[in-house]
Amino acid sequence: MEAKENVLLDIKDLHIWYRVYGGYLKVLNGVNLILREGERVGLVGEAGCGKTTTMKSILQILPPGDFLIPKGEIYYKGKDILKMNSSEIQRLRSREIAMIFQDPTAALNPVFTVGTQIGDVIKYSIALEEKKVHKEKIKILSVKALKEVSLPDPERMLVNYPFQLSGGMRQRVCIAMAISSNRNLLIADEPGTSLDVTIQDQILRLLKEIVEKKGTSIILITHSLGVAREMTDRIYVMYAGTIVETALTKDLFRNPVHPYTKGLLASVPKLSGGGIAKGIPGRIPDYLNPPQGCRFQPRCQHATCSCAENPPQLFEVEKGHLVACYLAQR
Amino acid sequence: MEVKQVKLGSFLLKRFLLSIFVIIGLSIVIFIIARVVPGDPARMALGPRAPEDVVQALRKEMHLDKPLPVEYFYWIKGVVRGDFGQSLVSKRPVAEDIKEFFPATMELAIFAGILMVIFAILLGVLAAQYKNTWIDSLIRMLSYFGIAIPAFVVAIIFMLLFGYYWPILPVLGRLSSGITPPRTITGLLTLDSLIEGNFPAFWDAFKHLILPGVALSLGGLFQEARITRSSMVDNMHKDFLAAERGYGIPEKIVMFKYLLKPSLISTVSIMGLDFASLLSNAFLVELIFNWPGISRYGINAMLHKDLDAISAVIIVFGVVFLVVNIIVDVIVALLDPRIRLGAARDV
After folding, report:
1. Can you tell which superkingdom this protein's organism belongs to (chain B) (predicted)?
2. A253 vs B: CB within 8 A
């Protein structure tokens, strides 16, 4: 593969299981993902395929005590996050990586003001270096962060509670918290999907602007291929806890190889008529007893016997275009 | 900020006005119940051997010969001025009896309430933090016992354990016989003796409080601990907590600021109700520990059909209950801006 030095994030064979009554939900089944500095990467897949779980595991914010990581490594700047101690994790969260959540209403604490929440984020980031943090400094930085996401009247916004803001404003507040300490990597989990299309568009444009201005790397989780096409350099397609295909964005749209990717592309409804899109029959497998071999095999039109035996490994079909499917290897 | 205070003020005013209506309603209900029970209060006051014309005179004096609404009017006029009538048992004005017995009950209830709040939150937080470990299981098991066993049974067990087998704490009354009681300022012995600087009296009064106080508080305490735990565990899975942790806010701040505050809302809301059940449990607990409180006075009044005293006790309890619930509402409003600022839209 290419030179290692500018790799920012490297997820290797990550497995995550959730503990439930009656066993384990084997949600992630070997996720491999590489992100280089300054790169904009899209993570695409249908709901429930493990996109958010993968991203939350990077920040170690999965609900405590309910999950298990039987296998895998997450390297950030060459260091395994899963082996970090709590102060290293603290620094990682305060300075390096931030996540923007899907639903801004759920991501803001309902009983604290915007100023308290964003102020604490800034305070504990500064506290890593300085013993005493002045209230004035926190306020100035909070206002600056709110200005950066084009919120009107940021000073007044500080004393507002989340329920007093509109959905779009809340999303902007969340973004302000995420960018407040000039972090290197933003993880945006379907930003704005819970909002109006027009607002969603504004939010995405804002995010694009910020990323371009600051040179931040970004992982954009989305189930909209249109958004991914517009916003990213490279795309990972995920299905049921595994990466099934990755390629440069233009290559993926020009030449999708994996049957699942093809199905996803066919599922996009066209504005110019043509009726309801084709879609993919069936649904995401039961994680308690996932299918043997390729996890997509029960829904795949091209499945053969070998698909049900061993899971296919990622295979390079062209430069930088990897596919986990026996079809591609033939 | 100004807007906030105005809103809280009008919120308080609204609650207060509402309470007045509740009290009026309560007084009507009590009055009617007290009058429809069979038996002639005048005859009961004077005894079976009093001559008929004396009884009639007393009936007139007590306005018993008037129609019910007029009678109510005379009664409520007295109540507003602090005149609850005459007790048939103690032969004193009911207001004086209340003044004497009420502080004892309040002292017990406040002490039990404080225990309830402190230990409920403590145990709830502990159980949530050590979810699904032996600590959580132990607290859960204790809770089942605490909720299932009635306060008077606990009181009797305490009496047996600490009064008979292992006599380390006093089990009768409010003060030992050798101790001079402090001057009455608030009527709460512990508080009065502290104000006077009389520490031996304070310590003695405090020791007398422990057993009945603990017996009274247990039910509500464990119920609230369970509620605190479950709402904390619920909130632990909320996105905002993952977000706050993910943005680098330290674990301790996340737990005790961002998790505890929203979780306490449901605990505090239930406290008003628990305080009411605490007062009703006080009837039996006061009897067992020979606590000279208003609950015991109320029971005596009931046994002797002392109507004015019964009505007064119920009204006093009603007022206490309303005051406690206003306090609870204010605390909830302080904790939850959505209630305080009167906007529960899209939550």
Report:
1. Bacteria
2. no
ipTM, two decimals, is: 0.86
Where do we find the tokens 């009797």?
A: B156
Kindly determine whether residue A110 and residue B132, on different chains, have CB atoms separated by under 8 Å. Answer: no
For A276-308, write each residue's pLDDT tens digit.
666 777 777 888 888 888 888 888 888 887 888
- pTM, 2 dp: 0.81
Q: What is the mean pLDDT of chain B?
A: 86
> Tokens 């605190």 — which residue?
B228
Interatomic CA distance for residues A174 and A163, integer angstroms: 14
Superfamily covering domain B2-37+82-340:
MetI-like (1.10.3720.10)
Cβ–Cβ below 8 Å for B248 and A93: yes
Domain ranges of chain B: 2-37+82-340
Tell me if chain B has a CB within 8 Å of the CB of A107.
Answer: yes
Among B147, B127, B133, B125, which residue's Cα sits nearest to residue B222? B147
**pLDDT tens digits for range A155-193:** 989 999 999 998 889 999 999 999 888 889 999 998 877
| Mode of pairing for the β-strands spanning A217-222 and A185-189 | parallel
List chain B residues with CB under 8 Å of A65. Answer: 131-132
- Residue B291 is encoded by which pair of tokens? 């606590």
CA A212 to chain B, closest CA, distance in angstroms equals 22
What domains sit in chain A, N to C, each tagged with a CATH number? 39-59+92-329 (3.40.50.300)
Distance from CA of A58 to the nearest CA of B (A): 10
Q: Which of B247, B338, B346 sits opposite A177 (nearest CB)?
A: B247
Q: Do A163 and B347 touch (CB under 8 A)?
A: yes
Contact A61 B261 (CB under 8 A): no
* Cβ distance of B242 and A93 shorter than 8 Å: no
B253·A63 Cβ contact <8 A: no
CA distances from A18 to A277, A327, B236 (A): 34, 31, 16
Judged by CB atoms closer than 8 Å, whether chains meet at B247 and A65 is answered as: no
Cα-to-chain-centroid distance, residue B51: 43
Shortest distance, CA A60 to any CA of chain B (angstroms): 8
Q: Which of B227, B270, B268, B271 is nearest to B109 (CA)?
A: B271
- Integer Cα distance of B32 and B27 in angstroms: 9
Which residues make Cβ contacts (< 8 Å) with residue B276, sequence separation at least 6? B321, B324
Q: How far is CA A49 from CA A41, A284, A287, B254, B289, in A?
A: 17, 7, 10, 29, 63
Q: Are strands A7-20 and A242-248 parallel, antiparallel or unpaired?
A: unpaired
